Automatic annotation (TrEMBL):
This is GyrI-like domain-containing protein. It holds the Pfam family Cass2. SMART domains: AraC_E_bind. It comes from the Bacteria. InterPro entries: AraC_E-bd, Cass2, Reg_factor_effector_dom_sf. Residues 9-157 form the AraC effector-binding domain.
Length: 157
């Protein structure tokens, strides 16, 4: 039987574009997190079936923006086409962007951030700040799992 390694901490550079539909929450940062993020994700999971053209309802994408005062955190799924957006949700496109990516888990996400930023520095990458891009956390949901795979994507220039 093959043992699945969740937190590989492997880093790489990828290019990706996303069409997303989801919900968001804005709250004080850092004191309201991770509770605010968990709340929006749980609320969104109850409504996933309302979204047309959903590519995979078991892959939750969470772009975010933060300025050390407040943070806006999204819970989204990728869609094939931005057409029907359910009431109370938002649909948006993240254009083709180059990202530094690391694989970790929901239990090792802090280590994931430390390692991806160290790797970026060692390899001469700088974070791209909010020029049609956001950092993204991607959660691979498994029903009943205590630990799930998470990828962190940091836009780079």
């Amino acid at each position: 039987m093959e043992v699945k390694t969740i937190a590989t901490f492997e880093c790489e550079v990828i290019q990706k574009e996303y069409e997303l539909v989801g919900q968001s929450i804005t709250a004080n940062f850092p004191e309201s997190f991770p509770d605010a993020a968990i709340k929006v994700q749980m609320d969104f999971e109850k409504r996933i079936d309302e979204i047309k053209n959903c590519k995979n309802k078991h892959v939750l994408l969470s772009p975010y923006m933060c300025n050390d005062i407040v943070a806006t955190y999204f819970a989204c799924v990728e869609v094939g086409v931005l057409t029907e957006i359910p009431e109370g949700m938002i649909g948006f496109n993240l254009p083709m962007t180059e990202y530094a990516k690391i694989s970790c888990s929901n239990k090792t996400i802090d280590q994931g951030y430390t390692k991806i930023f160290a790797w970026m520095g060692e390899n001469g990458y700088k974070q791209k700040w909010y020029d049609k891009s956001f950092p993204i956390e991607i959660y691979y949901l498994e029903e009943g799992a205590e630990e799930e795979v998470v990828e962190i994507l940091i836009p780079i220039q």
